[in-house]
Specification:
Blueprint: E1 8-10, E2 16-18, E3 21-23, H1 34-46, E4 51-53, H2 62-71, E5 79-84, H3 91-105, E6 110-115, H4 123-135, E7 139-145, H5 149-157, E8 167-170, H6 182-188, E9 193-196, H7 208-217, H8 221-229, E10 235-237, H9 244-251, H10 260-269
Helix pairs in contact: 1-2, 1-9, 3-4, 7-8
This protein binds NADP nicotinamide-adenine-dinucleotide phosphate.
């Protein structure tokens, strides 16, 4: 088990989900790395991680197969998130895309299915497909990704649009724009945010402020970056780690309690937004 138990956050549907999980973007792209990727995820699961974030896009479906291999017989304890591409977002194609994901995941359900980003298909169609899939038990909950505040406003006005349980967006110390408007909107509407690229795809790790704060706590920069995100109990972090060592290090963030002085220092190094900015997307 992870040293500290992984907390959960409540969803609008009445269910809950873990606030720490593992990402899988860039997995399944190289046959040479496949065994290591399965091993990294499996190690996380053995240490108590139950949330895994994947997508039909990652490795052209191969990341979902890697998730299935890592999960093995432990499917019932897992919370699997996958995503439908906007090019597959019509009603018929969303249903077909989810069914193809289920096959690759070797599962009868996706715990949370997201629209990966907004495309040209009218949202109503995707919502209808998600509602039908949920009724059939093929997905348990659904949500969106890369939706800015205006997209959330539109979604909320649509029939069943307010059944979306999360919005997955880029959020880390170097990308704090959502704190100005999207985060307050989501909090007001009880929509926990999933923070993707929580360590800015590794680019945050060399930052001096993180090293200095880490030193005070005997923690690494990755752990400081993740613990900073987990200061909110309605933010879900999904770092991608390609080795057991990185999984262990990232899980160590659960044991790190940052102090008031640390938060002040981080605000100085990475100032919060003072005005609205369009949502970043990686
Ligand atoms: N919805 C969307 O549009 C969207 C977009 C981007 C990402 N995502 C999801 O969010 C997940 C996380 O985002 P991300 O993969 O973009 O970036 P990330 O988690 O911020 O960073 C991943 C990178 O950091 C490295 N890393 C992880 N832990 C480390 C540690 N303790 N020490 C040193 N390096 C470490 C990894 O290297 P190793 O592989 O060597 O461990 C990898 O190169 C994705 O995998 C995906 O599931 C969603």
């Amino acid at each position: 088990m992870a040293n500290s138990a992984i907390p959960t956050t409540a969803l609008r549907s009445g269910r809950s989900m873990p606030t720490f999980g593992l990402g899988t973007w860039r997995m399944g792209e190289s046959g040479k790395r496949r065994a290591d990727e399965v091993a990294a995820l499996r190690h996380g699961i053995e240490r108590g991680v139950t949330l895994i974030d994947t997508a039909e896009m990652y490795g052209d479906g191969e990341a979902e197969r890697i998730v299935a291999d890592a999960v093995g017989k432990r499917r019932d304890q897992m919370f699997i998130v996958s995503k439908v591409l906007p090019s597959n977002a019509s009603k018929r194609q969303t249903i077909a895309a989810c069914e193809a994901s289920l096959k690759r995941l070797k599962s009868d359900r996706i715990d949370l299915c997201l629209l990966h980003w907004r495309g040209s298909v009218p949202l109503e169609e995707t919502i209808e497909a998600f509602s039908e899939l949920a009724e059939a038990g093929k997905i348990i909950d659904w949500g969106v990704s890369n939706f800015d505040i205006s997209d959330m406003g539109e979604l909320w006005k649509m029939p069943d649009g307010d059944c979306a349980v999360t919005n997955q967006v880029v959020y880390n110390l170097t990308r704090r724009g959502i704190e100005f408007d999207l985060m307050p909107w989501c909090r007001q509407h009880r929509v926990p945010l999933m923070a993707y690229s929580p360590i800015e795809q590794g680019r945050l790790l060399g930052h001096k402020a993180l090293a200095e704060i880490g030193k005070r706590h005997n923690a690494t920069p990755a752990q400081v970056a993740l613990a900073w995100l987990m200061r909110h109990d309605d933010i879900i972090v999904i770092p991608k780690a390609g080795s057991p060592a990185h999984v262990d290090e990232d899980l160590g963030a659960l044991d790190l309690l940052l102090t008031h002085d640390d938060f002040v220092a981080l605000d100085r190094a990475f100032p919060p937004p003072r005005s609205a900015k369009p949502l970043d997307m990686l």
